[in-house]
Amino acid sequence: MLDQYIIQIINMGNILVMIVLLVILGIMAMLYMDRKDDVGDRAQRPVRQSKKDRVKTEKIKSEPDVGRKPRTLSVVKPEQPEEEYEKDKLTGAYNRNHFNQAMQNRIDGNEDMSVIYGDINGLRQYNWQSGFKKGDNQIQRVFNILRSTAPEAAQLFRVSGAEFVLAMPEVDLKQGENICRSIRSKVSDDESLELDIALGIASATDEGMELKQIVAEAEESMMKDKLLCPSSSKNNQLNLLLYLMEEKFQETELHARRVQEYAMKIGKKLQLPETETNSMYLLSVLHDIGKICVSDSILQKPGKLDLVEWDAMKQHCVMGARILRSSPELTSISHAVLCHHENWDGTGYPMGLRTDEIPLLARIIRVVDSYDAMTNERVYSQARSHEDAAEEMRRCSGLQFDPRIVEIFLEILEEGQRETAA
User: Fold this and answer.
1) 290 class by beta-carbon count within 10 Å (0-12 exposed, 13-18 middle, 19+ buried)
2) Strand-pair category, 155-158 with 197-203
3) CB 360 within 8 A of CB 384
C-alpha cells in the first residue's frame, strides 16, 4: 500500500511540473506575439524628418479637389550632371568607377594602344609628415604634368590615392616610352614637387586584347621601376637583398656593377624596350641571389668542387627563383634567374633548355657573367686576360652561348678598347 501511495505522489509531481512548464511556455508565446505586434505598429508609423534631413522639393501639381490646396511630393533633385559622378574631385581625372567600366573594352586589331601605369612614391608618408593638404597639392601638380604631356585623345584615371593610369589610343610602345621620359623629365624639373613617381608602360600586342590585360602588364612594369626609385619603400626591399648578398660574398657589388654595365650595353644594341631594360637591370644585380642559400664552405672552396658540392652549387638557380617569386615586384625576373646557367646547346642546368627556349635576358646574363668571372680573380681561379677571355667566348659560341649575343658583346668590348686607346 505504501509503495503504491509513493508512486501516485511521484506521478502527481510529474504532472505538476509539466503543467508549470506549459504555463511558462504559454506566457512566453503571448509576450512574443505582443512584442511582434508592437514592432509592426511602429514600422507602419510615419517617420518624422528633422530639418537637416529634408531635401529640396519640386511641387508636383495634381487635380485639386474643390476647396483644397494642391499637394506636394518630395523628390531628390540632383545637384550635378551625371558625368560629374565619373570624375575625381581633387584631380578632375576619371575615377575608379569609370576605370572599372573601361577595363571591359577590347582593342581593335589594327588599333595601337599604350597604357602608362604610375604611382607617386612616398605619398602616404608625406601625408603623415606634412599633412594631407600639402599631399593633395603634390597630387594635383603631378596630374597637371600628366595632362600637359599626354596626347589629346588620352584618358587619365585616378585609380587609388597615389596611383594613376593613362590610356593612350593610337600610341605605340616607342611613342609611349618617349611620353614616359617626358613625364619623368617634367616631374624632375618641377622644383615645387617634393615627390617623384614610378612609371610603367605596356602596349597592345594581340588582336582583341582587353584593356585590363595591357593595364596589368603596365602595372607590373611600374613595380619594377618602383624598385629602382630611391624614394620608394620598395627600394628598401631591393637594398635588403643586395645587403644579404654582400654579407655572403664580398665581390658581389663590383661584380653586379660590371655585369649590369655590360648587359645594359647589349640591351641598347638590341633596342630592348624600357620594360625589358628595367628587368635587365634587376636581373644583372640579383641573378646570384640564390647563393645566399649555399654553404660558405662551397662558395669559398679554393679547389674544384666534388659531385655533391657541385650539385649543391647548381641549386642556387632554383633557390634564387624561389626567393624572387615570394615578391610580386620581382616575380617577372624569377624565370630568367632560374635559367641563367642554361647553355645554348642544352647542356646547362637546371632544366637543360636550349636555344630560344632560354629567355633572352638569361642568355645575355650567361654571356656577360661568364666573361666577368673569367677576367676577375675568384677563390677558385686566377684572372685571365681580355684576349684569352674573348677567345674562350668565341670558342664556346653556339655551345654555351647564344652566337648573336657573343658577337654583339665582343663588338662592345672592342669599341671600349678603342675608346680607351684614343
Assistant:
1) buried
2) unpaired
3) no
Q: What's the one-letter identity of residue 53?
A: D
Domain boundary among 231, 247, 267: 231
Number of other residues whose CB lies within 10 A of the CB of residue 399: 12
d(CA 400, CA 29): 87
Cell of 42: 511602429
Phi and psi at residue 203, in whole multiples of 5°? -135, 160
Q: What are 362's three cell numbers?
A: 638569361
pLDDT for residue 310: 93
pLDDT tens readout for residues 357-410 = 999 999 999 999 999 999 988 777 788 999 999 999 999 999 999 999 999 999
Is there a single domain that holds both residue 247 and residue 326? yes
CA separation for the pair 379, 153 (Å, rounded): 59
Type and span of the H or E element at 155 = strand 155-158
Other C-beta atoms closer than 10 Å to the C-beta of 350 total: 15
- Among residues 165, 192, 29, 27, the alpha carbon closest in space to that of 98 is found at 165
Instruction: Please write the tens of the pLDDT for every residue from 171-204.
Output: 999 999 999 999 999 998 998 998 889 999 999 8
Q: How confident is the model at residue 84 (pLDDT cuts 50, 70, 90)?
A: low
CA distances from 386 to 105, 341, 410 (A): 54, 22, 10
**Domain interval for residue 245:** 234-421
Residue with cell 637591370: 281
CB-CB contact of 178 with 149 (8 Å): no
Residues 101 and 243 in one domain: no
pLDDT-derived band of residue 251, with 50, 70 and 90 as boundaries?
A: low
pLDDT of residue 51 exceeding 60: no
**Residue 265, pLDDT score:** 95
| Residue 361: Cβ-neighbour burial (10 angstroms; 0-12, 13-18, 19+) | buried
Nearest to 298 by CA among 288, 286, 318, 312: 312
**Closest to 117 in 3D by CA, of 209, 198, 231, 6:** 198
255 lies in a domain?
A: yes
